[in-house]
Amino acid sequence: MTLSPTAHVDTTCRESLPPESSWPEFLFELPQVHYPDRLNCATALLDDVIAEHGADRPCLLEPAGDTWSYGRLQATANRIAHLLVHRLGVVPGNRVLLRGPNNPWLVACWFGALKAGAVVVTTMPMLRARELRDIREIATVDLVLCDHRFTADLSGDGLAGLTTITYGGTGADDLGARIAELPDEFDDVATAADDVALLAFTSGTTGRPKATMHFHRDVLAIADTFSAHVVKPRADDVFTGTPPLGFTFGLGGILVFPLRVGASTLLIERATPAELAEHIDRHRVTVCVTAPTAYRAMITHGHAGLLSSLRRAVSAGEHLSESTWHAFREATGVRLIDGIGSTEMLHVFISAADDDIRPGATGRAVPGYRARIVDDAGEPVPDGTPGRLAVKGPTGCRYLADDRQKVYVENGWNITGDTFTRDADGYFWYHARNDDMIVSSGYNIAGPEVEEAVMTHPGVLECAVVGTPDEARGSVVTAFVCVREGVVADAALAVEIQQHVKATIAPYKYPRLVRFVDSLPRTPTGKLQRFRLRSS
After folding, report:
1. Same domain, 251 and 336
2. Torsion of CA 61, 66, 71, 77, to 10 degrees
3. pLDDT at position 156, please?
4. Total domains, the chain
């Protein structure tokens, strides 16, 4: 595949693309995913929408009641782009890290960086210094735009020297004050459609994260495939959801999909299922995007009456059980749209909606994508036979300078790491993950990463971390721990280990169960047998 001439002055990302021989095959079978050679997704999602729908249209809603119009978002993003380029020296292709919860300022920073031609690296505020250090090293980040409440982890070894601009505060050095007098118009950089727009990080089963590289055209492709053909949003929709914009599930479902059609989106920094239901009721939300755990909790705790405004509910991030689907339908009348996606593919590639839904099945290949089940040799297996899920479409895996590209891509197909069966009608039925990734409450958590954090506790001799079944969360992170001689293995130590992990890596990764054992199961050659722990 011949790439267009890049608009990036800093060509680090273009030069760090994997060898083309290791790319998946990309499919552009739908006319909607044929984009011009020069394309800036920020222009398409904001300026072009304003040209069609007007600047006064509601865009970003806040729980407290404030509303940002499309015009206000555009003016703020343009001022941020001016600051980045003319005051901070950002050139097209530089990596700009964003850190903060879902709110309008984070979105404005996202658009401002893309308008300036930068590559956006959006992270979750839950990440700790250790995780941010890895991201900075892998992405060679040039600048950080950070919510003023979340700067504490941006210091220490490996993070020194980062230029950090805070936003959302009141000081003279805050982003809002810095851009107040800057022009509200900006000539967006005419990036190539195949210039890298964002780096999205995903957990690796070795513990070291992987940076997935997505082009400007990819950002629009997820809206013009899954969203357009399955979610089917309307300009009068109000979206909301709980996934952080640092997750590509959240980026698509809460930002890209609504803005692609001129709709509005309610940005929630954090919400329990009960609070989410209240937000849906108060703001008359019509499209919700969250994990099965939240949908199940909202109806289990009697909040179905607050969901009467919903016309669409999208579920992904973990397996949606048939019982949850039926319970939600019976309580609300809404048929949950299940789906599976991956950070490597940017968003959902198998799903179904409305009369196409078969409860218990994930769905069929989204228009624009193809999917099949293959054996260990990469050969297709008969329908009804479990195997590895393989996918290709207009988006696909491109790791930044990472040998694990060869693992994810085989013979032109993206191998997602999931075991499925396909039935004779083309529906895909989920069985399990193939690796040591733990999927809990919609989060992908790498067992080895948690093991490494547990092992830094002075009382721990050995540790193995696996996912164990849990009715509410799908699975929970469980640590099997051998303690050092003289250490008392009791409930107090378990809590101490949990708190230690929360302080070391993102808190959502901590082991909810800590089980003390005398030894860990191993093969005669010393290899850890995690499967025996999962079944114990």
Report:
1. yes
2. -80
3. 76
4. 3
Shared domain for 146 and 290, answered yes or no, is no
What DSSP string runs through 158-205?
TTTT-EEEEESS-STTSHHHHHTTS-S-------BTTSEEEEEEE--T
Mean pLDDT over the full length of the chain? 93
What are the two backbone dihedrals, phi and then psi, of residue 502, each rounded to the nearest 5 degrees?
Answer: -60, -35
- Partners of 351 in the beta sheet? 339, 364
User: What are the tokens at 102?
Assistant: 């879902």
515 vs 1, more confident: 515
What's CA 286's distance to the chain center, in Å?
A: 22
Query: What are the φ and ψ backbone dihedral angles of 297, each rounded to 5 degrees?
Result: -65, -40
Q: Name the 3-class secondary structure at 262.
A: coil
Triad 446, 497, 468: Cα angle to 5° = 45
Q: What are phi and psi of 28, to 5 degrees?
A: -125, 55
The enclosing domain of 240 has a CATH number of 3.40.50.12780
Bridge-based pairing of strands 409-410 and 413-422 is: antiparallel
Q: How far apart are CA 436 and CA 478, in angstroms?
A: 12
Query: Which pair of tokens denotes residue 317?
Result: 């991030």
pTM of this prediction?
0.87
Inter-residue contact 231 to 314 (CB < 8 Å): yes
- 159 and 92, same domain (yes or no): yes
In a domain, 294, yes or no: yes
Question: What percentage of the chain carries pLDDT values higher than 70?
Answer: 97
Distances (CA, A) of 296 to 115, 284, 471, 472: 39, 20, 10, 8
Is residue 522 pLDDT above 80, yes or no? no
